[in-house]
Amino acid sequence: MLALASAFGLLRARRDGRLRVRTKDDAVRLSASELGAELGERATLVQFSTAFCQPCRATRRVLDEVAGMVAGVAHVEIDAEEKLDLVRRLEILRTPTVLVLDAGGRVVRRAAGQPRRADVIAALGEAV
User: Fold this and answer.
1) pTM for the full model?
2) Which positions make up the signal peptide (predicted)?
């Protein structure tokens, strides 16, 4: 049992915060009205958070920095508790969850957990 729990912990730590492509998200497009904010000119970083989520604060700082570095990129933070219909539709299971949207609002990358700055920048390269 201890070995199984350790293996699960190592796997989760390795996958946490990785921005990956999910094929069923390819057809998902989000509009400004669904997000409650305007989409970025070139791309949008959407963060689903909750009030008591500690990694959400660090994720907010990373996404704000990246959005400030790249022209035409917006960062939108959504309280998951307020937008439960959207959370269910997108199958958000934990916070923070980050979606990278292209200029048209199509989801190109998704991460559950706190992403690294370099991964976010690389994902923006695909969206832009």
Assistant:
1) 0.84
2) none
